[in-house]
# Entry
Amino acid sequence: MNKDILKVLIGEEEIEAIVSDIASRIDRDYADLNGKLVLVAILKGSVVFMGDLMKKVTLPVEIDFMKVSSYGSGTKSTGNINIHLDLQRHDIDQCNILIVEDIIDSGKTLSHLVHYLKLKGAKSVKTCTLLDKPSRREVDFEADYVGCQIPDEFVVGYGLDFDEKYRALPYIGILKPEAYAN
Ligand code: PRP
# Structure
């Protein structure tokens, strides 16, 4: 185990079972789809989850990527997001978009993004997250697919970082406080 990890919160086998379960629910829910199913991963944290999820979904899928950040991180929400990388598609009205996230915290990123993609004309927009921290929510938002609800711990691995480190760990671990204290 990495020396900066206090404990493994979700191990590799458990992650695989969670991802398989989400994939089979997606297969079932989108079976009679009208249009395309497009998995849109939000960079960077969701890339590992996206890579595993897209292999387990058996329906035909297209993939795409966005990079966004919510702003108004102080006491006030501005009700908006910064879009650093947008979808470059001319067929958005034929796309059933399923946003793929690694974690929901305040809920601002996904709630704004769903609104934005609907305004852009997507046929449908749903959301999927591997991890959810409901105790951190600042806006009223629930994802359509949630892998695992977790307590408010500093988690890294399987795509999640602290200061760009630990994304490549194959499990979700709780970071030792001394690893982020200075
Ligand atoms: C994380 C995560 C979500 C967002 C969730 O991304 O991947 O996009 O924060 O937070 P919210 O619910 O409070 O809006 P982050 O900004 O850490 O970027 P990264 O994925 O590149 O690490």
In short: Residues 12-29 form the longest helix (18 residues). Helices lie at 12-29, 47-56, 108-119, 177-180. Residues 21-70+81-152 form a domain with the Rossmann fold fold (CATH 3.40.50.2020). The pocket of PRP is lined by residues 42-45, 69-70, 101-109, 161 (CB under 6 Å).
